[in-house]
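Researcher: Excuse me, tokens okay?
***
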Amino acid sequence: MPVKPVHLAAHFPGVNNTTVWSDPASGSQIDFASFAHLARTAERGKFDFLFLAEGLRLRELKGRIHNLDVAGRPESLTVLSALSAVTARLGLAATVNSTFNEPYEVARRLATLDHLSEGRAAWNVVTSWDEFTGENFRRGGYLDEADRYGRAAEFLHTARELWDSWAPGDLVTDPGAGVFARPGSGAFAHRGRQFDIAGRFNVPRGPQGHPVIIQAGDSPQGREFAAADADVIFSRHGTLEDGRAFYKDVKSRLARYGRRRDELKIMPAVTYVLGDNEADAAERAAEIRRRQVGPQTAIAYLEGHWGRDLSAYDPDGPLPDVEPDLGEGVSQGRAQFRGDRGETVRRWRALAAERGLTIRELVIEATGRQTFVGTPASVADQIDTFVQTDAADGFVFVPHLTPGGLDDLVEHVVPLLQEKGVFRADYTGPTLRDHLGLQAPRTPRAARTPRKVS
């Protein structure tokens, strides 16, 4: 059986409790120097891409700005445009919301990034579910889940029509006349449930044709959306067995859309901790988790699920003895508090009782993601095992320190993966599609006639 290549990407930590703020090596999460350091490190390690998440509103807890979040984070596409000037091969992936934006403007900005970076742009297509975030936008904003994914699918298809309104060769350079567009270039018309637009797209087709499309989410709707339209799915699962089940399920959906298994890369979010030996690494990992989930973080997380002020409870004591308030709640803008909070609380009570967990220990358990812990050699082996046994195609590493959190991985683990022959020694092409082994999209002219969407 042929050896599968390992794909690696980096995530710049955002609105979460990943960063260990108390560490002396923890730096700014808004200064450009931090973004540049992480990007250059990822490129030195020959990573496929750097991924930026984005929140559209400062989250709140009990009616106040949630002071455990990053405030002042600059807009992702602007940051990536600047990073395109200080990197040469690294893919640049931005989260852009499909609920509160419009296809023409997003397609234009992404095509621009693809040109500026010479073919390294990617778009993580996300939706928003809450009125709280929607208050920042004219339309206000609640959409049912099915409608959100319906809008996202049409949004993406419309953006592709805009990109396809230019074909290779439509932009012509004439030494005597300068640069001009061929007749008909950029003409488009789209008629659908969500969008009814027609005109002329003013950015020529980018080096990749279409930016790489990423989808983040593990829900059934998210999996189907990824199978139909994404190039990469950014997922989350905690064990080798869960990874294999997710991989099998998502890959099995591709055939119904006429796609091959290798046309969608599955790349879960992961962390890593290295040590001189296995025991040292395990001890360091446990300490990092305790610092990530401090007392204030533990109580705040529980309050989001209980829907109550729990500040009187000891984070190192037992779970609250009160029942959750399943009304509006005390947390705004935090997607992980959706769903059946009552069922979540019941499940947590049973787990805490079974294992004797305190509030803080429970939150550490509940917020953990797959973490590779060990010596550089054992971490390289773990990464390779996941990929070779079809639990993933690669990983998006989320470091616990900014901006130097990838340094050890690139210096000590990547060379071992290269020695195994499962990771590139150097980039073999200029574009992100080259890094991921993805074919260029076709260049249809369908955008020039109206497209009906039911």
